[in-house]
Specification:
Layout lengths: L4 H11 L2 H37 L5 E5 L9 H5 L4 E10 L1 E3 L5 H5 L3 E5 L11 E5 L9 E5 H7 L6 E6 L2 H8 L4 H8 L6 E12 L14 E4 L1 H6 L4 E11 L5 H11 L5 E5 H54 L4 H30 L8 H4 L9 H27 L11 H7 L4 H11 L8 H29 L11 E5 L10 H9 L4 E14 L2 E9 L8 E5 L7 E4 L1 H7 L6 E6 L2 E16 L8 E3 L3 E2 L2 H7 L7 E6 L5 H8 L8 E4 L5 H8 L3 H27 L1 H9 L4 H42 L9 H18 L1 H9 L2 H7 L1
Parallel strand pairs: 4-9, 6-8, 14-20, 16-18
Antiparallel strand pairs: 1-10, 1-11, 2-4, 2-10, 3-7, 5-8, 6-9, 7-8, 12-21, 12-22, 13-14, 13-17, 13-21, 15-18, 16-20, 17-18, 18-19
Amino acid sequence: MGWGLGSLLRASLRAGWRPLVGLALLIAVAGGALLTGVEASRRTETAFDRMLIATNAWDVLVNPDDGTNSPLTFQTVADLPMVERAGRVDGVFLAPGHVDSFDELEEGFIVFATDGVAAYDLGRPARIEGRLPDPDSVDEVFLSTRAAEMEGLGVGDVYPARILNEVLIGQVEQAGSEEEALALLNSDGFGEQIEFEIVGTGTMFDEVVVDSGFSTGSMLVTPAFWEAYDQPSAGFYGAFVDLKPGVAVDDFRAAVEATVPGETIAFQTLPSIEAQAERAIRPQVAALRVFTLVAGLIGLVIVGQAVSRRLQLDAITYAPLRALGLTERQRASLALARTAVAATAGGLLAVATAVVASPVAPVGLARDAEPAPGLRVEWVVVIGGAVLVVATVLAIAVWPAIASTRAREPRRQRASASSWVAAAGFAPPVVAGTRFALDPGPSNVPTRSTLVGAVTAVVLVVATLTFAASLDNFIDSPRLYGTPWDTIVSVEGDGEVAPPDVRRLLADVGAPDEVEAYGLLKPGQVLLDDISLPAMAIRRSAKPIQPTLTTGRLPASNDEVALGAVTLDRLGVDVGDTVRVTRGEDSTDLAVVGRVVLPAVSAYPGADKTSLGEGALLTERGLRRWSPEFSPVGALVDLADGTDVDAYVDAVDDPEDDIVMSSTVPNLPSDVQSLERVRSTPLVLAGLLTVLIALTVVHALGAAVRSRRRDLAVLRTFGFTRRQVLAAVAVQATLIALVGLVIGIPVGIVVGRLAWSEVIDRFGGLVDLVTPAGALALVSLAVVVTANLVGVVPGLRAARAHTASILRAE
């Protein structure tokens, strides 16, 4: 009799389509999670690069240290032959309509006025809501996301403000007390009052990733406002510069400095911002990829189990067809064809799931950078992924389809683990449980794949917990990310220490007994091997404070330098090599004496910053010689354990002294912030992996019970009680868990430690590995308990089954 596959498939679908619907839905859920994860990780990874294109990002931000008093004018910068175009932003004196405290002023956002080129044509923000202000409107403003969050404002809201100038601010500073100053500041007629309408919110590309302490937020006012209120400058300006193709950023920097010899100019560069963003977004992309991998593994286990079970049940249904002349190949082809129908339907539904879920991406910091939020799908990736889902399901189904239709041959009995256990005199339930867990038996139960799945899951859980322990230790240990001090003491108000006050400030902050180390922190910018790099130095004191050193030693003379790990790689040098330092016409070789981990340090928010692996550490004399002179940031102070920082500052701040001190926490580098944002990810991941273990064991126990119904029935016939059947299933579950733990724990520890070392090496931090012994003990207990709990249901079914009906069916 001839049989056509098409007619067989149609008849089969008419007779039994409902099980395939369930299988298709399962494939859709697993495939949809996988495709959504792939799409989300790609969208998160590319968001910042797409933002740079969409916002027409500038190449360099030029900040003269003397602001509007600098001999470097905006027009001088714009007229340089290497400049394609330039736009200007000016700082504006603006205060809220009502001020409750000076902290509100000090911690408020920065207000910029634009010339109509900057932020409109060059370096425009990525809009999240609304639009950019009309350049001809006086009272329309645009808020950065950070500023909107600080003030609780959104599009359509009104922000009352006062426009101030240096004279008015001087009057406030001369008030006798804070109460009198606030009363003056809030009085009617003090400063010009205006009500701004917020027409848009979004993010400038240089505000996506910002070190703590520099994340103030910003407001953008229009050219019309600037002119209408007679250019109310706050005394500083910046130039957005777009360079001509092929012009190097460092060549432009040198050209600007050459126009005003001896002038201090700060630069913020696009390559530095890109590198900082890449490091900050990388952990979130990695977390998404790991989630996607876990979703794929779980989906593979669940779908593989479902396909295998479906084919085994179908094989029973197809048994009569063998008597009608269907060959093994025809029956296997029919089984695969049915699976292909379910896989195709599931793949299409998976694509629909990925499309609907696409607005959840990007995640984390990259979400602020997304230039086109909402529904967005890369069809090549999604469709290719759907094809891969279908192909994977079919690949999984090939062997079960063949095995389920093949006539079973008697297997030659070999020595097995269960025979050794029996020879050792263990009780029958232990022998039976060992055989169920470790021996495939004549039914070809997939014991090996079950054990491999259990070991893999334990490896992933242990590796994740080991990684998480090292991550927690890193975030909680400032020394590891280059900040081995408790506070930065500076002059109240401006956050800087005026040069005449340095000696007295250091004498005050270093005197108390609870001070273990202190030193003056100075920012800088140096040119090493023709690459401009952020730099810093710490003035030595009677109790010198030591930056975090990983290799070599700290610089001791002005011809030595220590570099961050990322900078070492960028320059292509190592400890023991030399680099060429240049300033103007002067240059020499500096010996690279150490590898350091640096804090987030910069003269301005709008300047390149040192951070973990980025930047250079010099002696104070070396920095003075090779860097423009910037004001010190403040005095770094490391206090004895248990010392209250605020009480210490109050104690050393003499009210009769004209130096009024304030204390700030050390700036948290953006690299550390990005790691902190994914701090909970490993724990969530460990939970998902625990689900994977449970599913693996559930399938193993369920498959064993179904495949060995005859064995259990025979055992019941020979006197096995229900309690003994449950005991056998418990032994099986425990053995699967123990094999997973014995192999998985040591391998997982190694994998987790290697993964953390790789991550932190890329950031340039100090590696300090931690093994979470307590967590691993809990995991071991949880795995064994979970395995036994999930084995209760199949065990009860086996114990309650009717032996006579099972033996008749077999």
